[in-house]
Amino acid sequence: MKLVAVTSCPTGIAHSQMAAENLETTAEGMGHEIEVEVQGAMGAENELTADDIAAADAVIITADTAVQTDRFEGKPVVQGSVKAGVNRAGEMIERAVAAAKAGESGIISEGGVAGTASGTTSVDTDRTPAVDADADAESDAETDEPTKRGGDPEKGIFRRLRRWITG
């Protein structure tokens, strides 16, 4: 399947590059073709052409900034944070492939909610799933505990750099 992706973070120095690299290697490992545009403070790198977009079956946007989505109209656009592109590229790709096979179009957020694919969109940073009232009442006691932040320390950038440097 042919995919296109846009990664974007406010500085565009590390995270958007890491997300782009992870999306490329994961997609190729899954047997898909992918072109990735990286947006950051310095502008866009590997900018997607109209031909790239027209040939694509689905679009993946991993961004922590606003991304123009009107050029992807009529395509399924799976959208998530840059962190999702870095840590869960396979899930993002699988969701995009499933949406393309189902004939969906429009914005599909990380939570799986479809919307429209026109205009500018920004990633929703509040990723709290909807919960019914009974479950919410039961979980009130749990909300007093601090939220664990961060991912697996073995996959962090510093750990990866250390392994790379020490060989």
TrEMBL record:
What is the originating organism of this protein?
A: Halarchaeum rubridurum
Presence of the UniProt keyword Transport in the record = yes
The record's GO molecular-function terms, alphabetically, read: kinase activity; protein-N(PI)-phosphohistidine-fructose phosphotransferase system transporter activity; protein-phosphocysteine-sugar phosphotransferase activity
* A Pfam entry, by short name: PTS_IIB
Keyword Transport assigned:
yes
Q: What's a GO biological-process term for it?
A: phosphoenolpyruvate-dependent sugar phosphotransferase system
Could you tell me which residues belong to the region Disordered?
Answer: 109-160
Keywords from the named record: Kinase, Phosphoprotein, Phosphotransferase system, Sugar transport, Transferase, Transport
Tell me a GO cellular component: plasma membrane
Under SUPFAM superfamilies, the record lists: PTS system IIB component-like
Which stretches make up the PTS EIIB type-2 domain? 1-98
Composition bias, Basic and acidic residues: 145-157
What this protein is called in its record is: PTS system fructose-specific IIB component
CDD domains recorded for this chain? PTS_IIB_fructose
UniProt feature, compositional bias: Acidic residues: 133-144
